[in-house]
Amino acid sequence: xxxxxxxxxxxxxGIAVFVACLILFSHILQHRDTASAEEMPAPSLPIVTMRxxxxxxxxxxxxxxxxxxxxxRAVMTPLSPDRKVSAQxxxxxxxxxxxxxxxxxxxxxxxIESSDITDTKTNADGTITVNFTLKDLIDEDEEYLLxxxxxxxxxxxVRYYTRIRCDFDDTLYRDAVAFAEEFHxxxxxxxxxxxxxxxxxxxxxxxxxxxxxxxxxxxIDLITFGELTPKxxxxxxxxxxxxxxxxxxxxxxxxxxVEDPDDETRTCYYDTQEYYRIYKGFDRFHxxxxxxxxxxxxxxxAKSYANDRLDLGIAGTDQQVVQSADxxxxxxxxxxxxxxVNVDESSIAYIYAFSDAGxxxxxxxxxxxxxxxxxxxxxGGIDFVVYGYMNRGKHEGRMGVVAYHYNPAxxxxxxxxxxxxxxxxxxxxxQVENAAYLNADGRLYLMLEDVLYxxxxxxxxxxxxxxxxxxxxxxxxxxxxxxxxxxxDTESDAGEGSIVFTDLSDLSQQVIRPExxxxxxxxxxxxxxxxxxVSRESDASTDATGMEFLPMYSVRIxxxxxxxxxxxxxxxYYISEAVIEANQITLHRVxxxxxxxxxxxDDQIVSAAVxxxxxxxLQTADGGSxxxxxRLQATGFDPEDFRYIRPKEVMYEGSRxxxxxxxxxxxxxxxxxxxxxxxxxTGDAAQQAGSGAASSxxxxxxxxxxxxxxxxxxxxxxxxxxxxxxxxxxxDHGSYVWRAARADRCELENVGSGREYLAALQEGTTTAxxxxxxxxxxxxxxxxxxxxxxxxxxxxxxxLEEQLPGSTALDLTGCTMDEILYYxxxxxxxxxxTHGGERAVLIIGYGPEKIAVWDPYAQEPVTLLSRESAKSxxxxxxxxxxxxVKPER
Length: 889
What we know:
By secondary structure, the chain is of the alpha+beta class. Among the domains are: 2-38; 47-166, Sandwich (Immunoglobulin-like), CATH 2.60.40.10; 172-296, Nuclear Transport Factor 2, Chain: A (Roll), CATH 3.10.450.50; 479-526 and 528-609, Lipocalin, CATH 2.40.128.660; 742-885, Cathepsin B, Chain A. The protein contains 13 helices and 62 strands. Strands 1, 24, 25, 26, 27, 48 and 49 form a 7-stranded mixed sheet that branches. Strands 56, 57, 58, 59, 60, 61 and 62 form a 7-stranded antiparallel sheet that branches. The N and C termini lie far apart (95 Å). Residues 22-33 and 661-696 have low confidence and may be disordered.
């Protein structure tokens, strides 16, 4: 009987093993069917270049999904008044099956025209020239968005975007592009230094020996590449980033090659970016600003290494370098490419890149992307994100963030998640660079459009951690690990008005609650320590326009255990703003004199606890003919044992995509992802903070000579910085908030007379501010009961936005009179407080010597003041200004 039982057990055990083997074998077969390791596919999308005569400019790269027009600032294509458009398509062997275009308002809210394109010509070199004429439906002085659309056999809808404006002389912008081309050619040739000297302005600030960053103040020797003799591998096609009158901003990309003077068998390749600000004077162009960056494309196979180091060549020293805890593994980003080094094995892995050294495909070399390393493990595993425009691969032609993991054992990279983004690389870049963090549990945190997302890479699920953020009430530490926000949810456990201080490594939270009658404002971080301000509600001040000012009486620095490390508080002084730069906090202060806040001298808090940026592993050295070069210290690396690794990518069927809408909101509270073709789990959320409402913050975007620089939440800060840099400011809708260039003189007409308000002012039934607001609305053709609305509790800014739908009210307190004069040129009056804030006027024009104002106390429609008198008048009102961005027509 016992032997029978043993036999039965053996049979059952055999069956179990057999079934397990079948399941395992089936899983292996299924895995082979759904995944494979391959090289990244080559680019497939055509390129579109705009034309004018024989000139080519504005190299457009295609999108396979639709952009959010208000969040995507495209390059400018000037058109002559005949509205003719010409473009050239480089199909790269792809068959074009359909062509068309759309014209929309700049914010995309209104379709102007849509049509197919039938006038095409295939050229001998395979390119296709297209021509079409826009209908007479657009105004000459307005910008619009042109969406060129084409279809190929592989892609049914590819879009190419450019701004257009129809008030240009054809020859002017063609000459501007020709100037940049000539300047570039002469720097390459290096012989006509006399011609170049007429345009550049060398001084002591441009001295040095590095070719990595050259500008208008650099020496002629650096501008002409020193001892090197570069050649164009790909010639730059210049893009018109902005055109303002006779001033042009241009950007061009090129790949250069240089033969090593000391080794004729070695050729180095470089990514170069050029930026020009040029002005067309009476008889020639003037170079107002110039910058060129140059980064060697690091090629591990070119023996760019030595004992204990890697020779990165000509490059900046701001590359990201991350080391594993045991110091054996290194990962670094150089020129938009990711590499890793195992010093024990003396191996270099070329982990991720869209283009390689010597690659001449302009699609692969397109620079609108970046890479950020999230973690480096002791076994060589690396987690990283690629963000921006996807030049090739599974997501080619899309904008977004891809999370990857590098597996050194299998020498593969594998996509963990893809998050699409509807805006531009300019808007995406600072968000990923400043606020992306991966914790030890495999959870990736991203702050996109003021919504904090958690992406559980292991479980393939995504959810919002905090969505009540406004941009002005949340701060993130460098590296993304620490985040803090002011709670706005009245039902939150933290309590409305409290600061929630979160460590994303373990999701631990500390809550800092305000005392009764006080408010808390997160300012930023010094390292992982939070800086926040404390205000007393009793210190609030409201000016004649209804705008509230609430300064801070104390600034505190606290660690994550809520220990106060330092506090700044000086009797009779208040802090209006705190600005963090490196380890220093600059405090802009005010004093209260006779109940009015007046500016006081700045003060500083300096912390010695914060390390300076940059990696100690990056060092500079004398590179001989190459000037200053950069080296990466890799102690233990032995060139004799060098091994080169080029990982392949795991290609999956199905999708690992998560999509946010244009405001950054998830499609659902627990957004679904799919992995290997199956629905992913949604699971339980992390601790939720906030109500789930969309972010209501306003951002103001600053664009300078070198493109997008940063965004501000305060419009006055943005305008002041733009004034310093001759830049432009845009709002969330893509509308112009401020520009540097303006006419020599202007005056708004038909503002009306102040006589009709004089009696009411004398009787006290209205105020000067109310009269000015009423005149502003009437100028826009709107009649409203201003006195009644303001008496009911409305403030001036909200009243303007309610009565002028689609407009953006601007509080420009603290700006100068000269900065404010942009608005009359934009056909917009400016309300300015005077007489200590008791009165107000409208600024409606200016000339070389006079300022024109509309004064409700005056009998005449226009009062002319000398510039000095006007400046004194506005200073007496505290330099407080209110205006608006007009609604889109």
